[in-house]
Amino acid sequence: MLALITGASSGIGKEMAYYLSTLGYDLILIARRKEKLEKIQKDIKTNVTIISMDLLEEKNVFILYEKVKDYPIDFLINNAGFGLFGDFAETDLNRELEMINLNIKTYHILTKLFLKDFVKKNKGRILNVASAAGFLAGPRLSTYYATKNYIAKLSIGIYEELRKKKSNVQISILCPGPVATEFAKRAKGEFLIAEESAKKVAKYGIDKALKNKLIIIPDIFTKVGIFFNRFISWKLSARITYHIEKK
């Protein structure tokens, strides 16, 4: 068994690497920070290949695929991504375009290329790490929420295509609320509500994906919030989200 994880040097991606190793998976770990990947490689008992690469660059995504396409990968985990706090009229456009490249284009390209391979073999699994944000509009984090909506809806559409074809290939989306990672610091903000541990979210996400669950939401409060969001208007939902994000 061989899993590829992007954004594997910290947070959820790193914890997924450690957990998958305990399940017997060999790993291909992708991130920019080589020294962090090397530490994980030393800690893990199964075979680990590390690739230091910045997936903000679209060409690098294709280079990555060419590097690994002949490996017997049967589990793709798209996890790399970041956010940016602030009003849309004031946030940096170039930074947002980088976010769109990483949060959307990288996921889209890797999902497409590996899915084609998995479909040919009629086996394989994809886990796209999205967010509870994928079911909401997000004032003060508008672009980030929009990118996660893209990934959530794309994955759900692919799931139905695979189901209709009775394919053995599986796709899942992990949709946590706030998680204790580097996300808030990198987004130039701070969470003032309780954060789940990255280790707990990673384990829950992997366990549910291995059971072929489509939408994976780790905590009950986020599940309840998303459920009740169906029964209010988009305007009211955006007001509630703005209040939360402004804090």
Number of helices: 9
Q: What's the overall average pLDDT, rounded?
A: 90
The gross shape turns out to be globular
Please provide the ordered H/E string of secondary-structure elements: EHEHEHEHEHEEHEHEHH
Radius of gyration: 17 Å
Low-confidence stretches: none
Helix content: 40-55%
Description:
With 247 residues, this protein is α/β, with parallel strands linked by helices. Helix content is 51%, strand content 15%. The chain contains nine helices and nine strands. The chain has helices at residues 11-22, 34-43, 58-68, 93-121, 142-164, 183-186, 198-210, 220-229, 234-246; strands at 2-6, 26-31, 48-52, 75-78, 125-129, 170-174, 179-180, 196-197, 215-216. The strands form two sheets. Strands 3-2-1-4-5-6-9 form a seven-stranded parallel beta sheet, with helices on both faces. A two-stranded parallel sheet has the order 7-8. Strand 7, helix 6 (183-186) and strand 8 (196-197) form a beta-alpha-beta unit. Helix 1 (11-22) packs across helix 7 (198-210), helix 3 runs parallel beside helix 4 (93-121) and helix 4 packs parallel to helix 5 (142-164). The longest helix is centred in the middle third of the chain and has 29 residues, at 93-121. It is globular and about 50 Å long. The N and C termini lie far apart (43 Å). The relative contact order is 0.13.
